[in-house]
Amino acid sequence: MKLLIVGGGGREHAIAWKLAQSPRVERIYCSPGNAGISSIADCVPIQADDIAGLCAFAKESAIDFAVIGPEGPLAAGIVDEFEKLGIRVFGPNKKCAQLEASKAFTKQFLDRHCIPTARYQEFTDIKEAILAIGIYGWPMVIKADGLAAGKGVIIAEDQAAALSAIKELMSDKVFGSAGDKLVIEEFLTGIEASVLCFVDGKTIVPMASAQDYKKIYDGDKGPNTGGMGAYSPSLIFNEELENTIRNLILNPTLAGFMADGLDFKGVLFVGLMIGKDGPKVIEFNVRFGDPETQSVLMRLDTDLLDIMESVVDGRLADQQIKWSEDRTICVVLAAGGYPGEYSKGDIITGLDAMPEEILIFHAGTQFAEDDPETKIAGPEAVGNFSLAAAKCSPPSRSSVVTAGGRVLGVCARAKTSEEASAKVYQAIDKITFNGVQYRKDIGIIVE
Ligand SMILES: Nc1ncnc2c1ncn2[C@@H]1O[C@H](COP(=O)(O)OP(=O)(O)O)[C@@H](O)[C@H]1O
Ligand SMILES: [Mg+2]
Fold first, then answer.
1. Whole-angstrom Cα distance, residue 333 to residue 124?
2. Which residue puts its alpha carbon closest to atom 1 of ligand 1?
3. Cα 56 to Cα 260: distance, rounded to the nearest angstrom
4. Residues 97-153: tens digit of each pLDDT
5. Burial 257-288 (b: 16+ CB within 10 A, else e)
């Protein structure tokens, strides 16, 4: 089969790596991909939000199966467009993608189906939103309704902060039309956790648990990021909590999808706050999370293509899914300054000669020759990936340089979490680029 993976981050690298192990995969294309992905897939320079371009490419190249990584194209309806062309595609359609693309849509869904979540109100009028400042006490949670690349939620500590957040979102439009509507919520306390699930419209199957770290600094300090690391299985989950989540959240969510005519096919990410009065839904995402995916897929012992096809065909209930007992950990190396302004084009060294139990999933990387700003070039491998397994032509060898805020996800797999953690940080010691920053407490519970 010929596959197309849409996206170009660490998540897509992990998906490509896992799919390349399937004996039925002949060739993988990835658009746009990155330097690391090019060792297992043919990277096609079409951006993930260029739906017309992706449709044309998929048709020309006779793609048999497509996998959509990021939320942008899902929200814009890429799945509906691929389906119109008769191309099988893994991911929810536009209607279902509203569960990520509109926070108000999700809050209404949760309330309608009595699924535990924070109390909320939605506003399209700035004057009314200002009058609602403090209605649930402090701190106050203010959310842009639409997609805002993980930056549309403000936790305001006081009146002045709330007022300026509302103005920025609704009148300055810092996130464009995403701020046309606001959701104001009660602040929840507890431990944050998430559950990734496969959903085929009638069956929901949680994956192995994982814990991710959103804040830039150790001890969960500093601003939010796209995610600075993850480990699996999560130390927060146990059987009792998993059962509670299944009964109070996952099953009613699936029943809600069916009642509302949402034929959800793909991955549902359920963001939770586990507090004294049980788990509550913070949000849904309609795709694999990054970097939880890296830590989870490394433990998957079943062919991912089999699972994805069973989701698309509505056969998930009959699909076996096996997880390894091993522990995995993924630590993100980010560019200096991230999540604020950061530099690009810095040469990355130390990526070659990694032991077998280390995998490096690339996020913001590219080859020096593709980056006009880089002056020096030299030979450098792109990590520990088997080209033979991938059945694709090897990339041209040249320097790999930074091209994004989150640059690499260094991942290890071992029998115990202590071993996995030791291995990952030993591997990180060998990798350098200008300004590199990473968290040293991934794998440790932070409360
Ligand atoms: N009601 C809430 N109470 C406490 N913290 C919240 C609440 N809603 C969101 N947060 C915090 O803000 C973060 C981002 O909110 P979320 O709804 O997940 O938006 P997004 O991921 O789209 O930015 C959450 O991970 C959580 O830490
Ligand atoms: Mg979130």
1. 39
2. 187
3. 32
4. 999 999 999 999 999 999 999 999 999 999 999 999 999 999 999 999 999 988 899
5. beeeebbbbbbbbbbbbbeeeebbbbbbbbbb
> For the ranges 111-115, 119-123, 372-376, 413-417, which has the lowest average pLDDT?
372-376
Q: How many Cα atoms within 13 Å fall on the side-chain side of residue 319?
A: 25
Residue partners of 112: CB distance under 8 A and separation at least 6: 256, 260
Nearest to 200 by CA among 98, 92, 125: 92
C-alpha 236 chain-centroid distance: 20
Tell me if 402 sits within 8 A of 365, measured CB to CB: yes
CB of 364 sitting under 6 A from ligand 1: no
CA distance 177 to 254: 29
The dihedral built from the CA positions of residue 287, 143, 109 and 87, taken in this order, carries a sign that is: negative
Summarize the confidence of residues 290-304 as an average pLDDT: 97
- Bridge partners for 334 per DSSP: 406, 437
Burial of 388 (0-12, 13-18, 19+ CB in 10 A): exposed
Report the side by side order of strands in the sheet with 327-334: 211-217, 221-232, 327-334, 406-414, 358-362
Element (H, E) at 225: strand 221-232
CA 420-426-429 angle, to 5 degrees, is: 140
Q: Which atom of ligand 1 is nearest to the CA of 103?
A: 17
What domains are defined for the chain? 1-91 (3.40.50.20), 119-185 (3.30.1490.20), 191-318 (3.30.470.20), 326-447 (3.90.600.10)
Burial of 156 (0-12, 13-18, 19+ CB in 10 A): buried
Which strand (E) or helix (H) includes residue 95? helix 94-101
Two tokens at 139? 């701190």
> 288 alpha carbon to ligand 1 midpoint, in Å?
17
Does this model's pTM top 0.90? My answer is yes
- What are the C-alpha distances in Å from 136 to residues 156, 170, 195, 321, 333? 12, 20, 27, 42, 38
The residues near 381 (Cβ < 8 Å, ≥ 6 apart) are: 351, 352, 353, 397
List strand residue ranges (DSSP E) for 342-416, in order: 347-348, 358-362, 365-367, 400-402, 406-414
Q: How far is the CA of 150 from the centre of ligand 2 (A)?
A: 7
Centre of ligand 1 to C-alpha 368, Å, is 37
